[in-house]
Design a protein that fits this description.
By secondary structure, the protein is mostly helical. The protein has a domain of 324 residues: Na+/H+ antiporter like fold (Up-down Bundle), CATH 1.20.1530. The chain is 78% helix and 0% strand. The protein has 20 helices and no strands.
Amino acid sequence: MPREARTSERAHWQVLVAYVGLLLTAAVFYLLIRAYGDSLSVSRQPYVMIVGAGSAAAHMSGFVQVLLALALVIAVARALGSLFRRFHQPAVVGEMVAGIVLGPSVLGHVAPAFAAQILPQSIAPLLNVVSQFGVILYMFLVGLELDLGSLRHYGGSVLIISHASIVVPFVLGSGLALFLYPDLASGTASFTSFSLFLGVSMSITAFPVLARILTDCGMHKSNLGILAIACAAIDDVSAWCLLAVVVAVSQTRSGGATLTLALAAMYVISMIVLVRPLVVRMSSWIGNKQRVSQTALAFVLLTILLSSLLTETIGIHAIFGAFAVGAVIPHDSFLARDLAAKLEDFVIVFLLPAFFAFTGLRTQVGLLNGGHEWLLCALTILIASLGKFGGGAVAAKLNGFDWRHASALGVLLNTRGLMELIVLNVGLELNVISPVLFTMLVIMALVTTFLTTPILHWIVPEHPMEPETSMVAGLNNLLHGD
């Protein structure tokens, strides 16, 4: 065998051994954490959740009240989104802040009478329904943006970088659960569910927000940008699989969780083996006609709803069904592009602000009423950032990157944004985390997303030059698995 072939084969084995070692080490650490954590108990009584600011507007019809609330929510979300873009921040950061501003943390505190009139507790269920439709369609669009076919072209080292940025914060988050569980878990959550969820919440990377930051910075076509998007795409798929496991464990006992995971595996196999070939054929037919008819759009929306209903029935949440439908549609097809053009603006402008508002109603900064709570919040932000940044940056450095570009990659992977809010709302709905921890994690999502752009501009020049030779060589090694 030629020397080059032997060297390449040895490198592939080294990548495989490193990857397996990473996963086994994480599994051992988590089992040790769980063994100790199972002996802990929740020391506080369950928290009372304040969903709205009052019922002063109870005389108004629910429909009229929702219309009024949505009008205010959309106006404030667009205004703050535009304001934050002026400061070189993604608009989604301003929209996330808008939800908190309209909730009990700001508006309910400063003008409680007006808050009770405009966002009363009575409309929370209706607002939740609108927001859930927004999240389902948004997750479909996220799946639509994923180019799963291109991931096959990346070398094993890219997989290691991506999963290191998941495994390290997951283990650190699970370890943090040992300190937070007694005080900040809900009254009914087991330590296993709590630690798994906290680990997943630390591991999320917001693929769409990261892509938008790279585009705004003019880096989306650079070597660093391409690698960051590839890692974020792998992160997204892996993190949603982990969250499905957490949901299954949280909603059922061990036997039921096993059944749920088995059904989930059957669902995924069916989507790949049965649904994807049909969608590919449909995409080809529509591509030839260069038109997505109303009938075709209705078929896609019906598929999203049925898939979401199926995953909700299985026990892994409706968002996974919508995400899976988007992921099986060919990324570069005319169908995918036209669906994104038809749905994206409506979802982002009209539906998602309702989700931000509903999240804001659940976020009660006033619950962090002492130095101890704020210290735990700061610790949560620190652990989340160290895990995500450290896992990605160190793994990139070990795979041939210089420290500047490795650090920039770690900063990008620390972006959480809207994806984190979706995960946190799932955890609160499942009664795994308390409203206090929910608020802390929302603040963590805002801080980590907000800091991405300024830190990235500090590490990488505002008008990046051609990447350094070591950067190019490292990227080529990663992409080709050499």
